[in-house]
Amino acid sequence: MHDIGLLLLATVMGTPLAWEGQQDGRFVHNIVPSTGHETEQTGAGSTVLLSPHTEDAFHPGRAHLLMLGCMRNHDNIATTAASIRKVRLTDEDIAVLTRPALPILPDDAYADAQGYADGAPPPVPALYACDEGLTLRFDPAYTPLENADEGYRAAYGRLAAELARVSVAVSLAPGEVLVVDNDLVVHGRVPFVPRYDGTTGGSSAPPSASPGGAPAPRRKPASTATDRPPSKRTPPEHPPTDRRDPP
Ligand SMILES: [Fe+2]
To answer: Which residues, 6 or more positions from 162, have their beta carbon under 8 angstroms from its beta carbon?
Structure first.
């Protein structure tokens, strides 16, 4: 019933999408700590900080909105959220970070996608300036920063530090839903000790949804001609009408 409620809510806010390689293509994913995956940078992890990231940052068709629904949270474990619109960066750093310098690789939850693409994933910009302001595409755990020059790494580090500075902690109660604007806000999770008795975590997350109603259309960070999906996606019943990538 919880999943149906989340999916209905997502349908009100946009067009839900699912991923063929994620949890059998289900629109609503169960996010629970998993034995043996404690230190992974995925929803199955627990004992390490889940680094702030854009959901599905590697994919040009990622969702505009992400919904996190809480089922259990006995230990008040917090989700973190940080908006690019609150950070302070110099014009020089923004100029560096809006250039496509590095690829973002599929995370460990996309085992199939990691071997799907024919060639190397293309470099993409971390920041993109649209009419409303900056948007971001940020996933440091899956960005090969060691391949960038020192100037880029320094600018990327300052962006990460600023996101940490403006980060807020959101501790959800059962039944509450957090809606994240995936173009503006990176989300993460503080470390916790899993109980593995069915009472820890248990957040059921998200049909990713693209806004079809209230939120204003927004451009994503630029995709390049070679920025093709490395993973197959279950097509939505009704194609979104407001998803526009820059030319
Ligand atoms: Fe996430």
So the answer is: 87, 88, 89
